[in-house]
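queue> pop job 88
queue> type: inverse folding (structure -> sequence)
queue> payload:
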Protein backbone atom coordinates (compact mmCIF):
# COMPACT_ATOMS: atom_id res chain seq x y z
CA UNK A 1 0.00 0.00 0.00
CA UNK A 2 1.41 3.40 -1.00
CA UNK A 3 1.87 6.22 1.45
CA UNK A 4 -0.35 9.16 0.53
CA UNK A 5 1.56 12.01 -1.11
CA UNK A 6 1.81 15.27 0.87
CA UNK A 7 -0.35 17.92 -0.72
CA UNK A 8 1.81 20.90 -1.75
CA UNK A 9 1.26 24.25 -0.03
CA UNK A 10 1.66 27.82 -1.32
CA UNK A 11 5.19 28.10 0.06
CA UNK A 12 6.23 25.17 -2.16
CA UNK A 13 5.55 26.97 -5.44
CA UNK A 14 4.91 30.68 -4.77
CA UNK A 15 6.93 33.32 -6.58
CA UNK A 16 9.08 35.01 -3.95
CA UNK A 17 10.35 37.75 -6.29
CA UNK A 18 7.38 40.08 -6.52
CA UNK A 19 7.28 43.45 -8.24
CA UNK A 20 5.44 45.83 -5.90
CA UNK A 21 4.10 49.36 -6.07
CA UNK A 22 3.32 52.02 -3.48
CA UNK A 23 0.05 53.85 -3.03
CA UNK A 24 1.62 57.24 -3.81
CA UNK A 25 2.45 56.32 -7.42
CA UNK A 26 0.46 58.23 -10.05
CA UNK A 27 -1.78 56.53 -12.60
CA UNK A 28 0.83 57.12 -15.31
CA UNK A 29 3.64 55.71 -13.13
CA UNK A 30 1.76 52.52 -12.30
CA UNK A 31 0.74 51.95 -15.94
CA UNK A 32 4.36 52.35 -17.05
CA UNK A 33 5.49 50.06 -14.20
CA UNK A 34 3.09 47.26 -15.22
CA UNK A 35 4.08 47.59 -18.89
CA UNK A 36 7.81 47.72 -18.13
CA UNK A 37 7.70 44.57 -15.96
CA UNK A 38 5.21 42.82 -18.28
CA UNK A 39 2.85 42.02 -15.40
CA UNK A 40 -0.93 42.31 -15.23
CA UNK A 41 -1.13 43.40 -11.60
CA UNK A 42 0.97 44.25 -8.58
CA UNK A 43 0.63 44.20 -4.82
CA UNK A 44 0.45 47.63 -3.19
CA UNK A 45 2.66 47.78 -0.13
CA UNK A 46 3.96 49.98 2.64
CA UNK A 47 7.73 49.49 2.87
CA UNK A 48 9.21 49.38 6.37
CA UNK A 49 12.47 47.82 7.53
CA UNK A 50 12.96 45.74 4.35
CA UNK A 51 9.47 44.28 4.84
CA UNK A 52 6.44 44.91 2.67
CA UNK A 53 3.08 45.21 4.40
CA UNK A 54 0.31 44.43 1.91
CA UNK A 55 -2.39 47.11 1.73
CA UNK A 56 -3.98 46.43 -1.65
CA UNK A 57 -3.69 45.20 -5.20
CA UNK A 58 -3.72 47.15 -8.46
CA UNK A 59 -4.40 45.59 -11.86
CA UNK A 60 -4.40 46.45 -15.55
CA UNK A 61 -8.19 46.49 -15.28
CA UNK A 62 -8.05 49.12 -12.52
CA UNK A 63 -5.72 51.23 -14.68
CA UNK A 64 -7.87 50.85 -17.79
CA UNK A 65 -10.97 51.86 -15.87
CA UNK A 66 -9.33 54.94 -14.33
CA UNK A 67 -7.59 55.98 -17.55
CA UNK A 68 -10.68 55.61 -19.74
CA UNK A 69 -12.84 57.50 -17.21
CA UNK A 70 -10.27 60.30 -17.04
CA UNK A 71 -9.98 60.54 -20.82
CA UNK A 72 -13.72 60.27 -21.51
CA UNK A 73 -15.09 62.38 -18.67
CA UNK A 74 -12.19 64.81 -18.20
CA UNK A 75 -9.68 65.25 -15.42
CA UNK A 76 -11.00 63.86 -12.14
CA UNK A 77 -10.40 65.54 -8.85
CA UNK A 78 -8.30 64.58 -7.00
CA UNK A 79 -5.55 63.33 -9.27
CA UNK A 80 -5.60 59.52 -9.77
CA UNK A 81 -3.01 57.54 -7.79
CA UNK A 82 -2.62 53.89 -6.90
CA UNK A 83 -4.41 54.71 -3.62
CA UNK A 84 -7.51 55.90 -5.51
CA UNK A 85 -7.72 52.99 -7.98
CA UNK A 86 -6.42 49.94 -6.08
CA UNK A 87 -8.52 47.15 -4.59
CA UNK A 88 -8.16 47.35 -0.83
CA UNK A 89 -8.19 44.22 1.35
CA UNK A 90 -7.46 41.67 -1.38
CA UNK A 91 -8.10 37.98 -0.81
CA UNK A 92 -4.87 36.51 0.58
CA UNK A 93 -3.54 33.08 1.41
CA UNK A 94 -0.97 31.95 3.93
CA UNK A 95 2.21 30.01 3.09
CA UNK A 96 0.64 26.81 4.45
CA UNK A 97 -2.57 27.00 2.39
CA UNK A 98 -2.87 23.68 0.54
CA UNK A 99 -3.02 23.36 -3.24
CA UNK A 100 -6.67 22.28 -3.46
CA UNK A 101 -7.78 25.17 -1.24
CA UNK A 102 -5.93 27.59 -3.51
CA UNK A 103 -7.52 26.05 -6.61
CA UNK A 104 -10.94 26.44 -4.98
CA UNK A 105 -10.30 30.13 -4.29
CA UNK A 106 -9.08 30.76 -7.86
CA UNK A 107 -12.07 29.03 -9.42
CA UNK A 108 -14.77 30.47 -7.18
CA UNK A 109 -13.47 34.04 -7.16
CA UNK A 110 -12.24 34.16 -10.79
CA UNK A 111 -8.81 35.41 -9.72
CA UNK A 112 -5.53 35.35 -11.63
CA UNK A 113 -3.13 35.97 -8.72
CA UNK A 114 -3.18 35.57 -4.96
CA UNK A 115 -0.80 37.27 -2.55
CA UNK A 116 0.83 35.03 0.06
CA UNK A 117 0.84 36.87 3.37
CA UNK A 118 1.86 36.12 6.94
CA UNK A 119 1.15 38.59 9.75
CA UNK A 120 0.36 41.24 7.13
CA UNK A 121 3.78 40.86 5.47
CA UNK A 122 3.86 39.99 1.75
CA UNK A 123 5.95 36.83 1.25
CA UNK A 124 5.15 36.08 -2.38
CA UNK A 125 2.46 35.63 -4.96
CA UNK A 126 0.80 32.64 -6.61
CA UNK A 127 -0.53 32.79 -10.16
CA UNK A 128 -2.97 30.53 -12.00
CA UNK A 129 -0.07 29.32 -14.14
CA UNK A 130 1.92 28.25 -11.06
CA UNK A 131 -1.17 26.51 -9.69
CA UNK A 132 -1.72 24.70 -12.98
CA UNK A 133 1.91 23.54 -13.02
CA UNK A 134 1.71 22.41 -9.38
CA UNK A 135 -1.56 20.55 -10.07
CA UNK A 136 -0.07 18.83 -13.12
CA UNK A 137 3.02 17.75 -11.17
CA UNK A 138 0.88 16.52 -8.28
CA UNK A 139 -1.45 14.68 -10.68
CA UNK A 140 1.44 13.09 -12.57
CA UNK A 141 3.11 11.97 -9.33
CA UNK A 142 -0.20 10.59 -8.04
CA UNK A 143 -0.76 8.56 -11.21
CA UNK A 144 2.67 6.96 -10.95
CA UNK A 145 2.33 6.17 -7.24
CA UNK A 146 -1.16 4.73 -7.23
CA UNK A 147 -1.92 1.17 -8.16
CA UNK A 148 -5.24 2.01 -9.83
CA UNK A 149 -6.87 2.80 -6.49
CA UNK A 150 -8.70 5.98 -5.64
CA UNK A 151 -7.82 7.74 -2.43
CA UNK A 152 -10.54 9.52 -0.53
CA UNK A 153 -9.45 12.77 1.02
CA UNK A 154 -10.85 15.01 3.71
CA UNK A 155 -12.64 17.74 1.74
CA UNK A 156 -13.79 19.80 4.71
CA UNK A 157 -10.87 22.27 4.56
CA UNK A 158 -11.01 23.12 0.81
CA UNK A 159 -14.81 23.24 0.91
CA UNK A 160 -14.78 25.69 3.82
CA UNK A 161 -12.36 27.97 1.95
CA UNK A 162 -14.90 28.40 -0.83
CA UNK A 163 -16.85 30.56 1.60
CA UNK A 164 -14.33 31.70 4.22
CA UNK A 165 -11.33 33.78 3.27
CA UNK A 166 -8.58 35.04 5.57
CA UNK A 167 -8.35 38.76 4.87
CA UNK A 168 -5.62 39.55 7.38
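queue> result:
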Amino acid sequence: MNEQQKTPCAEDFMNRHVEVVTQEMTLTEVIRFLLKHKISNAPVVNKQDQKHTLIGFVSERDCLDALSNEMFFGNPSPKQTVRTIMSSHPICISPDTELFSIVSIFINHHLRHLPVVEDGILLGIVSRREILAAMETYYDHSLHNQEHERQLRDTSQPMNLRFTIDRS
